[in-house]
Amino acid sequence: MKWLLVGASTIAAEYMIWAMRALPGGSVAQVTSGSAARAADFAARYQIPAWGTDLDAALAAPGIEAVYVSSTNEKHHAQAMAAIAAGKHVLCEKPLGMSLAEAGEMVRAAEARGVVFATNHHLRCAGSHRAIRAAVAQGRIGRVLSMRVHHAVHLPPHLQGWRLNDPAAGGGVIPDITVHDADTVRFHLGEDPVEVVAQMTQSGLGQGVEDSCMSVWSTPSGVQVFAHDSFTHRFAGCGLEIHGTEGSIFGRGIMTQKPVGEIELVTAAGRERVPYSNYDLYTQGVADFEAAVAGRGRPAADGADGVKSLAIALAVREAARSGTRQRIDYGGF
């Protein structure tokens, strides 16, 4: 597949370019950025043949099959809509848009145009998370009672900037991390949360946006979910726990972009290490996307998944802002 990168981003540089090139015939043909200097430097650094600032011209270039959007959050909607209008398949970073209406419009436009539209929720591509999901589905912990996600990390200096000080660009820990928790919870539980309560704060890094948040979610089946997200915790570690009537699963160090961490199943029979495949998350996500384009299955996270993770994150932020319980609006998805 021949890709156009929209956004000369860190995630593209560190993960996505290599994932695209790892698959048979995969190539990155061009990169666009709002900055000509940044686009030129990025293209030279990562051996990308063409670069520019004109998205329409890039979309018209011969042979482009798919577009990866990884610009700042407020640009996702317009850029993805342009790619969809040009008949390109689109893999978009989370959150899909700044509002539920934007995200829904993107998904519906792709459906009308007949192109694949997917959300880059990488965690559901991990061997660790797929092993946990399988264990839950197999009933190894019985009926699920609760889930805890601790995703409180320290935002590395090279990722700081708009994420910490620019609400207009979609900054804040909720659109950056809570949105991933939302997809992860849905992936493991197989249901959509219905209500949330939350609190957020600026605890050391955020300037104009929240850098820490805690929230509690309820689900139709009665599962209670607790999520702790932060940009300011250097030593907290990350992971998730799923507790059921017959056992508990502990995933330690697995809320990450790398195929690392440990999974332990605890039941009346004792403690058991759960094995998993440690392949590259992003290569798996691109492979799933390309398979969907070829008519073989669906992306790891499709557009509706992206809408729903955004809906949960928006409800968490509003619950924290207002101090009131919020019903989650999924916008018809």
UniProtKB/TrEMBL annotation:
- List the residue ranges forming a coiled coil, or say none: none
Q: Which SUPFAM superfamilies match?
A: Glyceraldehyde-3-phosphate dehydrogenase-like, C-terminal domain, NAD(P)-binding Rossmann-fold domains
Among InterPro entries, the record links this protein to:
Gfo/Idh/MocA-like_OxRdtase_N, Gfo/Idh/MocA_oxidoreduct, GFO_IDH_MocA-like_dom, NAD(P)-bd_dom_sf
Q: Which domain of life is it from?
A: Bacteria
Pfam families, per the entry: GFO_IDH_MocA (PF01408), GFO_IDH_MocA_C3 (PF22725)
Q: Name one GO molecular function term.
A: oxidoreductase activity
Q: Where is the Gfo/Idh/MocA-like oxidoreductase N-terminal domain?
A: 2-121
Keywords, ordered alphabetically: Oxidoreductase
**Span of domain GFO/IDH/MocA-like oxidoreductase:** 129-249
Per the record, the similarity remark reads: Belongs to the Gfo/Idh/MocA family.
Tell me the protein's name: Gfo/Idh/MocA family oxidoreductase
* Species per Swiss-Prot/TrEMBL record: Aestuariivirga litoralis
